[in-house]
Amino acid sequence: MKGKLIIHVLTILLLVVAAFMLIPLGIALYYGETDSFKAFLYPILALLPLAAVSYGTTRSNRTKILTPRDGFMLVTLSWVAASALGALPFYISGTIPSYTDAYFETMSGFTTTGASILKTIENLPYSMLFWRSLTHWLGGMGIVVLTVAIFPLLGIGGMQLLKAEAPGPSVDKITPKITHTAKILWFIYLGLTIVETILLMLGGMNLFDSLTHAFGTMATGGFSPKNTSVGNYNSPFIHWVITIFMVMAGLNFALYFKLLTGRIKDLLLDTEMKAYLAIFAAASLAITVSLLKHDVFDSFWTSLQYAAFQVASILTTTGYATTNYDLWPEFSKVILFLMMFIGGCAGSTGGGMKVVRIVTLFKLSLRELKRLVHPRGVFHLRLNKMVVRKDIISVITGFVFLYIFSLLVTTVVVATGGYDVLTSFSTALATVGNIGPGFNMVGPTMNYSFFQGGIKWFLSLAMMMGRLEIYTVLVVFTPWFWKKQ
Of 118, 128, 253, 479, which is least packed with CB atoms within 10 Å of its CB? Predict the structure, then answer.
């Protein structure tokens, strides 16, 4: 591996994170939050001389090409290092006295998981609340993708970074140059964030709350500056705005580029998008009927409002809540539980297994059933009217196995703390799937503060593995990764 090149790019990425820390630093200055101001200033000042030395000594390597191994190592280290840096303001200010908890909270933010150890959120300084939500927004589209977009010097090997970091089984190059692709994705991301912020302000939210909730929505993260999450706002308009934008954030962002360029036909042919929207609609309607049947809410539209919001939140792995769904009828909870296995679309900010993988495996199963009836027949597996290559099917099959295996291992690790099966398994689903809230002890009105330190560190790893699509992290721990070629 090209060690100096990895250090060079990692330095640039940490400088990008530090640059964004200037925003909450300014907020701390504005609100007179002295301790918070120092907590942001000290890490930035400490990083600058280290970055200068690192950048200067590795600068000559910047034009080299990144190999796939370099990309996997760099992306994994990027999320570890960014979380380590991002946790310092929480720890130095005393907002989160334990560095283990501060790291867990920050990793949860950057991976857009939304699992929190905080018991009382609204008591935090404004600057800390803003930084907490900003980590979501940076991690949503990907801090590595942002680095590729800002620094064209990474353009030569940028595709290896994007392949290793971007969610989904494949990465589409919207334009011939990967740096242009990264910029387009970020501009779409920024544009949707601004639109949602304006709509939330029109619904009665102040600017601060609108921004932080828009960050959490578009990143499908779920950190809210309110103790009761979006349920703090008893406004159908706000609930529907966030529901719609959560669904939009769960779509492949490449589809928005196609929409902007007038390629409507490509949208209508997209199998994953149609399956995703169908799952959302069917689950929302099923829960609505269940809520009405058990008189949880007094009208169809109110039931639909809460059902659609919670389905969108779990399906897209956002993790916002407008009510304690852990008290809903069992049928409704089962539907939400199933949504935790699916996730958003490939190329979205959502986590989970991704709809395209579910669709592919479903079609693969149907094809095998046909083979049993017609053993001599030739049946192709198609998505978007295109034949899916065998190597892609193998990658998807392997990923699903590793995903389920990761869930089981995480469940066992959590259970070593003496927690019940539902808490342990839903914790695994919520962290590996980057969802945030689960059921029982990690339900929508609970938090993760009660876990032991060792379990929190393991869950931090689980969140990163889920965000980076399992393969990226696990491959670094394999012996053949380190063998010289």
Answer: 479
